[in-house]
What we know:
Helices cover 43% and strands 9% of the residues. The chain has 306 residues and is of the alpha/beta class.
Amino acid sequence: MKNALKLILLIFIFSFLLDKAVYWTIRKMGDQVYSGEAVGKLNHYLLLKDSVDIIIFGSSRTNHHLQLDYFPSSTFNMGVDGTALVYCKALIKLLPPKKPQRVILHVDTRLAFDPEYTGFDIEPLKIKYHQIPALRREIDQHLAINPLQKLYWTLDYNGITLGLVKNYLQPKYNYQTYDGYDPLFPNQVQKEIFKGILKQVDSTQCEDSLRLSPTFRNSFEEIQSFCQENNKTLVVFTSPLYRDPCLEDNKLFAEELSKMGITYYDFSTLFGENSSLDYWKDLRHLAHPGAEIFSKIFADTLGISL
């Protein structure tokens, strides 16, 4: 029995030490990656967050919708596909204290009233779980981390190691000329698919009772408090949709932010169903021509257009 326990202990110690050796190897490599969304764009943000004057946060409807040709040069588009408010909140809290900056934040009003939204979108930040304590606190607040990840740190990179290595060996782009905007150029097949979608009847309706989710309310209170204490100007917006099946949530969301004293711009119906199909990739995302028009209007509305 004693020999078996010794063997188990030796295996545990060996696996623990091997895990840390592999973790530090991957981390050293990963910290040098500045292309690709999974790791590179986050590293790029951490590199420049203390120096830029305007940072735009949000999901794919930020990443693909705001071209920065119409914005001051000290602007970065930190939109990341598949993310939402809690992911953005965690990154906003990493901004330098007291430095004057403009924080522009995209919100999907549909998700704002989803009672099941608890901040699952913060999961991509787990790659920094053992590297940045502020992110670790945010992750623990919203995500049930695998207990083994606190012991075996290589789990921070679970599922993204291959992409990390690819971007390390062959970067997708030169990050020094990258402003965070990723344009969408639908091919002919995608255009035909979109036309087919438009022929379908949309039966989506507003919920009978709309209430701002607790996660959204608490997150906005935290973001607003951080911005007020650290000399940040907060602006919230919703980007265009081809078809918005429920305008009631937009109205209620605007009222909620008004009560909090937060500036909000709703561009969801800027184009609408009578706009050119060349402006769109799908019902929720603008193609590059539409993004160009929206970006100019957006910058003019905020008074920061070049």
